[in-house]
Write a structure and sequence with these properties.
Layout (H helix, E strand, L loop, with lengths): L1 E8 L3 H12 L5 E4 L28 H14 L3 E3 L3 E5 L4 E6 L3 E12 L3 E3 L2 H4 L9 E3 H9 L8 E5 L3 H12 L3 E6 L9 H8 L6 E2 L2 E7 L6 E6 L12 E4 L2 E4 L3 E3 L2 H6 L23 E3 L10 H25 L9 E5 L3 E5 L2 E2 L7 E8 L3 E10 L2 E11 L5 E6 H5 L7 E7 L1
Length: 425
């Protein structure tokens, strides 16, 4: 069994940034495992621009953004293996993986960084009535077909779900000559960024039908059409509101699910809201020495935030390894103060903070559960408000963040809870 100080599972934007950060923080023995044939992850098929504005202060395409980090990885001479699937991770941080050259390989890590990304919700989870004809694709699959393989999935499409990938594919399909009939969204608000609604739908006169869903797929061998209907407050179709759209393609953009099968196998505690690991202020999971970052932790809207978060995970993993060298390996962690998602807030990352370990400021990211206008993001320590941040609008499709100061938390020696909530302005 080969030993490394740090093993990173996933060679996408999160894994690359975490590995580079760990190396620059003093750890040389690093291995990155990537199941695809090249590094970069999902960014390789995201040929649209808009990446890198925060990280590089310039607008890049997905492949350009990924290449910046691939080059950094190679400059740092970090070891990586492609076409390598991690099959299992033991509680002792022993990784069993498989590839075509080595067959089964086993590596032991002093610290582990989980950066497996996420997957799309499939049709089976949506329970759409009808046969299973050709022409039903996830938006990500359609994106790969068009941008990498040069194949157009269909000529006339309906998109179910208004996540960012679905919005971007509405524009991409249109630019390739297809007719996008409509983007249909179950919720009364879009799940994507506002800029994508404007640039991908409004600019191309593609209708966005909120509070609607697909109730039937027509066709046996190939999609021939879909029937959509308006839904009530309980998200149930309203009889008599049905509309028929003739199409040969249905794209599904109905949410992303963090890839945490390996995490479950290790017994890591997962959030019931995000389906990602619960982490502390050091992005360390419930199992000591195992860190998580990127979309495996919670679904991000901007890859720049993924890189920022992953760099911290790499830094803290390096500190863990160096601390273990000095003190002897230990998975015992000091308990933190719980972060409580209050009214209007779905979840927070991290889910707990130990004020003694904070480094001046702590960024807390979260998503809201509905659209709120003229509101405030407030933070309470033991019921006492310490922060009130006015916002003209907050939406579930865009991640929010606040910054907590160490001295503010230290002023409460008996701190039992930190509550983040949405309030009226």
């Amino acid at each position: 069994m080969t030993e490394y100080d740090i093993v990173v599972i996933g060679g996408g934007p999160a894994g690359l940034a975490a590995a580079v950060s760990a190396k620059r923080n003093g750890v040389d023995s690093i291995l990155v495992l990537e199941r695809d044939r090249e590094l970069g992850g999902i960014l390789n098929q995201c040929i649209h621009n808009g990446f890198g504005l925060h990280t590089f202060q310039e607008e890049l395409t997905g492949p350009e953004y990924a290449q910046r980090f691939v080059e950094r990885l190679k400059e740092e001479a970090i070891t990586y293996r492609l076409n390598t699937m991690a099959l299992r991770v033991s509680k002792e941080k022993e990784v069993t993986a498989l590839n075509g050259e080595d067959g089964i390989l086993e590596v032991r890590a002093k610290a582990l960084i989980l950066a497996m990304g996420c997957r799309e919700r499939a049709r089976g989870a949506l329970r759409i009535p009808g046969y299973r004809p050709a022409g039903v694709y996830s938006a990500g699959t359609a994106q790969r077909l068009v941008n990498i393989e040069g194949r157009l999935p269909g000529r006339k499409a309906v998109i179910l779900g208004s996540g960012d990938i679905g919005l971007i594919m509405a524009r991409r399909m249109t630019l390739e000559g297809a007719k996008v009939q409509a983007v249909v969204e179950l919720m009364p608000y879009s799940g994507g960024l506002r800029r994508n609604i404007v640039q991908c739908l409004d600019d191309f006169q593609i209708p966005l039908k909120l509070s609607h869903t697909v109730v039937r797929v027509e066709g046996k061998k190939r999609v021939e059409g879909v029937v959509i209907a308006q839904v009530d407050e309980s998200r149930r179709p309203i009889p008599g509101t049905e509309e028929h759209y003739e199409c040969d393609t249905l794209l599904l953009s109905c949410g992303l699910i963090p890839e945490n099968e390996l995490s479950k196998g290790m017994g890591i505690e997962l959030s019931p809201v995000t389906a990602g690991p619960l982490v502390n202020e050091r992005l360390e999971t419930s199992r000591g020495g195992v860190f998580a970052c990127g979309n495996v932790l919670h679904v991000h809207d901007l890859v720049d935030f993924v890189s920022e978060e992953a760099a911290l995970a790499g830094k803290y993993a390096a500190q863990y390894v160096k601390g273990s060298r000095r003190q002897g390996a230990s998975d015992e962690k000091e308990s933190g103060v719980p972060l409580i998602a209050g009214e209007g807030v779905r979840y927070t990352v991290p889910s707990s903070i130990c004020p003694k370990r904070m480094e001046g400021r702590q960024t807390v990211r979260f998503r809201v559960g509905a659209v709120y206008r003229d509101c405030c993001v407030s933070v309470y320590l033991n019921g006492r408000r310490i922060l009130r941040k006015k916002r003209p609008i907050v939406t579930p499709g865009e991640m929010e963040e606040i910054s907590l100061k160490k001295e503010e938390l230290a002023a409460f020696p008996d701190l039992s809870g930190i509550t983040v909530k949405i309030e009226e302005a």
